[in-house]
Structures are given as structure tokens and as C-alpha cells.
Amino acid sequence: MIDSHCHLTHDRFAADLPEVVERARLAGVERCVTIGTGVEDSGQALELSRGSDGYVNCTAGLDPFSAHRVADRFDESLEQLSLLLRGGGFCAVGEIGLDYHYDLDPRPVQRDRLERQLALASELDLPVVIHVREAHADMIEVLADHPGIRGVIHSFTAGPAEAERYLDLGWYLAFNGVLTFKNADAVREAARRVPEDRLLVETDSPYLSPVPLRGRRCEPAHIAHTIEVLARLRDLSASKAARITADNARRLFRL
Fold first, then answer.
1. Which residues lie below 8 Å from residue 100, measured CB to CB, with a gap of 6+?
2. CA-based diameter of the chain, in Å?
3. Nearest-CA neighbor of 200 among 217, 215, 182, 179?
4. Can you give the CATH number for the domain in which 226 is found?
5. pLDDT at position 103, please?
6. CA 153 to CA 171: how far, in whole Å?
7. What does DSSP say about strands 199-201 and 151-153: parallel, antiparallel, or unpaired?
8. pLDDT along the chain (255 residues), means of 10
9. Helices (H), the chain
10. Number of domains in the chain
């Protein structure tokens, strides 16, 4: 199994990260991709990756929340991000995207920041990790304008119609603990329809613990619960679902 999206630099892991990583290994997680959210966090992700003997890979990006926090210093932060990425050690740009649930910044501003980071990913020939919440129509429009870029829609929580649009554009879809939630029928239907070679799994830990662990801190070891549900949906064994999604993660991120 590969956890294609987690946040191991999060404060909630500060006290026991070595134990979290060991539990992931014991659960059969082959490796983790820890996601950078902001320049400082991306630097910490790189440091963690370099000290992990290849077990942790990392990404770097200015997501809608970190971009909002830097406010009028976004240009400076983007330059710092560019320098960090050019130093090597990252397997993707991200997470980056659009978040209209909180409307952190005006939508045209969010789109501009997203497109500038997509251009950076294209220049560096890196895949992209996309965050999108209540903004699928605009995101699909933006990605359609950048046909040469590859990547994954992380934490996919929409339905089959949106899934089809992203798939038509060549993107991967990543499913996490939401797939196990009682009210996620549309997400499960989308997961049934995704071609085998475009499926990823993730935890988004410490968030979105799967059933039966709701209410607890999520961690990479919990990805097995999401894989079990995905396997049932697609009439596969859990081991085959794990192998398929791990192979896809290795291919997308060049692991």
C-alpha cells in the first residue's frame, strides 16, 4: 500500500511521529507521500523525507489556506517555493487549488495563484496535487486550459459526473476515508467507475479517519480500511486493490 497524501509534518504528529511511521510499516504501507502546504511546511516535509531512508516522499505547494495567510506576500512566497522546488527532492507540486467553501480569497485571485503554480509545475516537469472544494466547474475549466499537466485530484468527494470530466482530462483521482462514510454514495459510485490505471488511495491524515475509526486522529496505517472498501466496490481482493493503487502512485510520482 502507498499513502499518496498525508500531512506528517502536522502538529498532531509532533509527539509520536516515529511510532506513527512504525505502525504504517507494520500495517503494510510501503511508503508515504507527505504534502507541503506553504513554504515553511514544504521545507519541513523535505527535511522529513531526507531523513526517512526513502520511506517518505514529499511535495511542495501553496494551497488556498497558506496562500491566504501570506496575503500580499504571495509573490514573494511563490519565488521561495520555486527556489525550494528547484533544489530537488520533491515528487510533485502541491497541494494547490481552489477552495470556495470558505471563500478565503476572491475567486479570480485563487485562480490566478493556481495557474501560476501550474505553470511552475509544467516548467519543472512535475505532477500536481490538486485541492478542490465546491469549485469543480472552475477547476475543470482551469485544468482544461493546461492540457500538458498531469496529476491527481486529491480527496475526491464529488460524484460520477465530475469524475468523468477529470478523467477525460487525463487526471488521476484519489480516494480516502470519505469513501467509507455512510453518506458518501456518490463518491462510492465514482470510485466504481474510475479506470484501474487512474486510482489512488490516501489518508489525508491527520484528517478524515475512515469507518470504523471516526473521531480518532487519522494516520497512514488506516489506509487499509479505505482499500478494503474500494476493493469491495470493484469486486477485487484487498491485496489486488492495494497493488493497483500503489503501482499508480509509483507511476504518477515517479517513486
1. 107, 110, 133, 134, 135, 138
2. 50
3. 179
4. 3.20.20.140
5. 79
6. 7
7. unpaired
8. 98 98 98 98 98 97 97 97 98 98 94 98 98 98 96 98 98 98 98 98 98 96 98 98 98 97
9. 17-27, 39-50, 64-70, 74-86, 107-124, 136-144, 160-168, 185-193, 223-233, 238-253
10. 1
